[in-house]
Write a structure and sequence with these properties.
695 residues; 39 helices
Length: 695
């Protein structure tokens, strides 16, 4: 996180290339409020390595000459100033100093002096103070603060004591950055006895100095400064920042101050305490927070419970458990959430009871959700056993939740108990158990899961059961045989719906073992099984089922199955066949694999004289970008029932051809289409392709 640091400055100025991070600014109360969450400030800027760029040290003389030439364009002088800030030597310091009151170049000159490693740069800034007014004076004061120049303290104190100079607030901030004993004394004195108009700036200076002290390891001095700002009449954001700093600087001795904020009537301070409680380390802090729970108001109890949970301190579970039965719903929920991190074996019964608390029947109950979340992440080794013991004794809604928790926890040894829940007549219980089994059950336990899965008749439960079986199958390392246990179970099951369910899962897995089992099921005595198997093969993710589909297409007496088989043959032959022959992302036409031609030729030979079948085969022949496909297409150009479909398929096939031999075979067909077609667009396409071939 960023530190509370910065310079009060004219915000329109660009930041120095080498110290952009050093000049972030904290002017304004909003930035002071943000400091509540910030850590200690960054150290004084050091000379950073010069980055590579257009300018190099050898360019210095030319850049310096440009900068010193008053007649040079401002843009060139700005660029010279910026480059000299990166690579300039000591000879650039007088040039920078001469520009500290220049309307366009003062900002860039100050940037160069802020980061220059030569002490003479600080001297140049100090020397300019008596001669500057207004924004130019403020800018130089800011730069001295950025440099943390201890030799400028006396001059800055004088400016802080003389508001008429117009740089008193900025001088106080610069003194806070410098953080030497004289500087901090001046800032704190202004906060105590100075004019009210400067208290805010003095408090910011105190905060800056305190952070510098804290970073240097001077906790007592830092604490004194934080206390000075905290007790002053300054805006609330600054007091909050000072309070946070005081607590963290005091460490264990800051615990009373931390608790004081929790007890404040202003909720802003109790919310601050909740944030700081997360930052302040030590077991004593946790014990103090736990003790405070007993006397805090309900809203503060919620804040403390959240802090304790995030701290994850051990030994405070007893105080948290007592609030899990609070009369305040918000406190109960916060306590239940905290037990997920802080709980012990004694917390488990409390969380389990919360699942069956009055009004917990709703899945959206925040109290139930908190208990479920905590049981899901509770690290105690006895949690799984306690859940398994409670499972059979709970209400249906709670059993569903407990099953889900077991799945989330990947509870080893829970399969038997979850199978009993999966067999429950309540679909909510059963579905939750199947979801958990997908995570918990092993491949060795898959046969048991299958037996319960196929016994479910409820459609929604069966769908969940299929997904569970699928998930367990994926745990099998050998991807080619994940369907083997399903195929074995399929041979032993007679219920059609159960057999269909297993076929669905094998299709989801899509492995060779499943493909063989589904192909065999196409010969099953049960028509429902044959129908399911065929429909699954038609949508298979590779071309392996095509021989089976060809056999069905040739032999079945079922017209629906024959039509399905033909569609599958066409789809799988043209979509998946030979899919290893070329890169999958290749957009170039390629010659179809030989198996596609063979399969479609075989199907074409077995067609009946029916237009529907002819149209299906034509959709596939149009994807055969080769002479063999054209020879099969040619007869259909003379068939009035499908002539137009044949013309379109021929054009599609020809456009994808890659060899001269294929294109020569295509030419007579193109001429035939151009002269006989009744469709003007088809004729135009044919003539266009002929023209391209001629050229």
């Amino acid at each position: 996180m960023k530190s509370l640091q910065g310079t009060a400055h004219d915000f329109t100025r660009p930041m120095s290339p080498r110290t952009a991070a050093a000049d972030t600014g904290i002017r304004g109360w909003i930035v002071a409020l943000a400091a509540i969450l910030m850590t200690v400030s960054a150290p004084a800027p050091a000379a950073s390595p010069r980055p590579s760029g257009l300018a190099s040290p050898s360019d210095g003389p030319a850049l310096l000459a440009t900068l010193n030439t008053a007649e040079a364009p401002i843009a060139q002088r700005v660029l010279a100033c910026q480059n000299l800030a990166l690579i300039g030597g000591s000879d650039a310091i007088p040039a920078f100093a001469a520009l500290l009151d220049h309307p366009q170049l003062a900002v860039h000159a100050r940037n160069g002096l802020e980061v220059h490693p030569d002490p003479a740069a600080a001297t140049a800034l100090r020397s300019a103070l008596p001669n500057l007014r207004g924004g130019f004076l403020v800018g130089v004061v800011n730069s001295l603060g950025v440099r943390r120049d201890p030799q400028s303290v006396e001059a800055l104190i004088a400016l802080a004591l003389d508001p008429s100079k117009g740089a008193a607030p900025e001088s106080l901030l610069a003194l806070g950055r410098i953080a030497s004993p004289p500087a901090t004394a001046a800032v704190t004195q202004t906060l105590k006895t100075g004019p009210a108009a400067l208290w805010t700036a003095a408090a910011e200076g105190c905060l800056l100095a305190a952070e510098a002290m804290h970073k240097r390891g001077d906790a007592p001095s830092a604490l004194a400064l934080f206390e000075s700002a905290r007790s002053a009449e300054v805006p609330l954001p600054l007091r909050l920042a000072a309070t946070r700093g005081a607590i963290l600087a005091a460490q264990d001795r800051g615990i009373p101050l931390l608790l004081e904020q929790f007890r404040s009537s202003d909720p802003t301070f109790s919310q601050l305490a909740a944030r700081v409680a997360r930052e302040l380390p030590g077991a004593a802090v946790a014990q103090a927070l736990a003790a405070e729970l007993g006397r805090a108001s309900n809203p503060v109890q919620v804040l403390i419970l959240g802090a304790l949970s995030d701290r994850a301190d051990l030994g405070v579970s007893g105080a948290v458990e007592r609030l899990a039965v609070s009369t305040s719903p918000a406190v109960r929920i916060a306590a239940l959430e905290a037990l997920g991190t802080l709980g012990t074996p004694y917390s488990i019964p409390i969380l389990l009871r919360s699942l069956d608390a009055p009004g917990s029947g709703s899945d959206t109950s925040p109290e139930v959700e908190a208990a479920v979340a905590s049981l899901s992440r509770l690290a105690d080794a006895g949690t799984d056993a306690a859940i398994l013991t409670a499972l059979p004794q709970s209400s249906p809604s709670t059993r569903a939740r407990l099953s889900s928790i077991l799945g989330y926890r990947n509870a080893q040894g829970a399969t038997t108990a979850l199978l009993r829940q999966a067999s429950d007549p309540d679909p909510i219980v059963s579905k939750a158990a199947f979801d958990a089994l997908a995570a918990v059950a092993t491949v060795a336990e898959l046969p048991q899961v299958i037996r319960v899965a196929v016994s479910r008749t409820d459609t929604s439960v069966r769908d969940r059961a299929e997904r569970s079986v699928y998930g367990i199958c994926l745990k099998q390392a050998d991807a080619s045989s994940r369907s083997a246990p399903l195929a074995a179970a399929f041979r032993e099951i007679e219920l059609p719906s159960a057999r269909a369910s297993l076929l669905q899962v094998m299709a989801m897995l899509g492995d060779p073992a499943g493909s063989r089992a589904i192909a065999a099921a196409c010969e099953d005595p049960l028509p429902e099984t044959r129908d399911t198997a065929l429909r699954l093969l038609v949508n298979w993710p590779d071309s392996s089922p095509v021989p089976t589909l060809l056999r069905i297409f040739k032999t079945t007496a079922n017209d629906v199955h024959r039509n399905l088989a033909l569609r599958g043959i066409v789809t799988l032959s043209t979509l998946w066949a030979g899919d290893q022959a070329a890169p999958s992302d290749s957009k170039s036409p390629r010659r179809p694999p030989a198996e596609s031609v063979t399969w479609l030729s075989e199907a074409n030979s077995a067609l009946r004289n029916q237009p529907d079948e002819k149209k299906i085969i034509l959709s596939g022949l149009g994807d055969l970008n080769c002479a063999e496909g054209l020879r099969m297409l040619k007869p259909y150009l003379d068939d009035p029932a499908v002539r137009h479909e044949a013309e379109l398929a021929t054009l599609r096939a020809i456009k994808g051809m890659t060899t001269a031999e294929d294109r020569a075979t295509a030419r007579p067909l193109l001429e035939k289409i151009s002269t006989q077609t009744q469709d003007a667009d088809t004729r135009r396409q044919a003539l266009e392709v002929l023209g391209k071939q001629a050229s």
